[in-house]
UniProtKB/TrEMBL annotation:
Record protein name field: Inosine nucleosidase
Reactions that this protein is recorded to catalyse: uridine + H2O = D-ribose + uracil; inosine + H2O = hypoxanthine + D-ribose; xanthosine + H2O = D-ribose + xanthine
Domain Inosine/uridine-preferring nucleoside hydrolase, chain residue ranges per copy: 10-313
EC code(s) of this entry: 3.2.2.2, 3.2.2.3
Family annotation (InterPro entries): Inosine/uridine_hydrolase_dom, IUNH, Ribo_hydro-like
Keyword Cell inner membrane attached: no
EC main group: hydrolase
Keywords recorded for this protein, A-Z: Cytoplasm, Glycosidase, Hydrolase
Superkingdom of origin: Eukaryota
GO CC, any one term: cytosol
Length: 323
């Protein structure tokens, strides 16, 4: 295979999660990428359950060759009072389906250490697709000063750029889940593409899309159709819509094909305390401020501002319906 057609190596850092399940299956169905590992984190569920669900999803997909490395059980600042979104995904994180426990086990290595090692052996060639709070990525940055350089790109679901959050008017769930970690990642100097809910809220799976999943015989389509009930109910109740936001699948596809989104570049910081804890504030560098501030001299990140939602939806459906 020619070097430029080799699939992009990706590690998915995940807190599965209904939209995570969809994103993982989508990545496994995408020839442009090779999933070289899953790392787990709290968010939609606690980390222990995230690991169990990650192993389970790989078993459903018949991809137990992919290693799962368990991530942190606490925030970057050792916080144990975690905000878990079980009201969005069900108590089991996967739509209350009572799936049997997985047979497999996570590898011995921690998520942060796995990230550091994979980036080191393939410098510039590994993309992290981060779908939960950014604790593991921040730990990797702290563990190895070269990590931010060695990692190819970090494509993350996080932030609510110039829009309301989904935890409260200020904060999106992943930046709220570990704001200190998010701020470390945003200011690390790594090649970061942040996809916030200002973008993912434009990608909606409708009831008619779900009917297509339901009438497909594909194993992923059947599985996803089952677990989507809880996610639909939540969106109906919280947003009064008959559809669901495809946060995580959009982020995976942004890693698969960066042309699906357009971005702006600037400095993003995350508030770590107070009533706006978890808020993301982006500085577009248009004004030269007279005084130094908390954004001065920090490395830039890319922030997604538009998405080709019809194209994203077509890819989601094409790759998941007849699978
Ligand atoms: O209202 C919400 N509260 C908490 N988490 C949510 C909510 N809506 C969606 N998500 C979850 O958080 C990530 C996007 O911010 C997604 O993983 C999504 O499933």
């Amino acid at each position: 295979m020619a070097a430029d057609t080799e699939p992009k190596k990706i590690i998915i850092d995940t807190d599965p999660g209904i939209d995570d399940a969809m994103a993982i299956f989508l990545a496994l169905q995408s020839p442009e990428v090779e999933v070289i590992g899953l790392t787990t984190i709290f968010g939609n569920v606690y980390t222990t359950l995230a690991t169990r669900n990650a192993l389970h999803l790989l078993e459903v997909a018949g991809r137990t060759d992919i290693p799962v490395a368990e991530g942190s059980h606490v925030t970057l600042t050792n916080g144990t009072k975690l905000r878990i979104a079980d009201f969005v995904h069900g108590a089991d994180g996967l739509g209350n389906q009572n799936f049997p426990p997985p047979k497999g086990k996570p590898i011995e290595e921690s998520a942060a250490s796995f990230l550091v090692h994979q980036a080191k052996v393939n410098p510039g060639k590994v993309t992290v697709v981060a779908l939960g709070p950014l604790t593991n990525i921040a730990l990797a940055i702290q563990l190895d000063p070269e990590f931010a350089n060695n990692i190819g790109q970090i494509v993350l679901l996080g932030g609510a750029f110039a829009v309301n959050g989904n935890v409260n008017p200020a904060a999106e769930a992943n930046t709220f889940g570990d704001p200190d970690a998010a701020d470390v990642v945003f200011t690390s100097g790594a090649d970061v593409l942040a996809v916030g809910i200002n973008v993912t809220h434009q990608v909606v799976l409708t009831e008619s899309d779900r009917e297509k999943l339901a009438s497909s015989n594909g194993k992923f389509a059947q599985y996803l159709n089952k677990i989507l009930d809880v996610y639909f109910s939540y969106h109906q109740e919280a947003y009064n819509i008959k559809g669901v936001y495809l946060h995580d699948p959009t982020v995976v596809l942004a890693a698969v094909d960066p042309k699906l989104v357009t971005c702006i570049e600037g400095i993003a910081r995350v508030q770590t305390s107070g009533i706006t804890r978890g808020i993301t504030i982006f500085y577009n560098k248009q004004k030269r401020f007279a005084e130094m501030n908390e954004w001065s001299n920090k490395p830039t990140v890319k922030v997604a501002v538009t998405v080709d939602a019809p194209r994203v939806m077509k890819l989601v459906m094409d790759r998941l319906v007849d699978s």
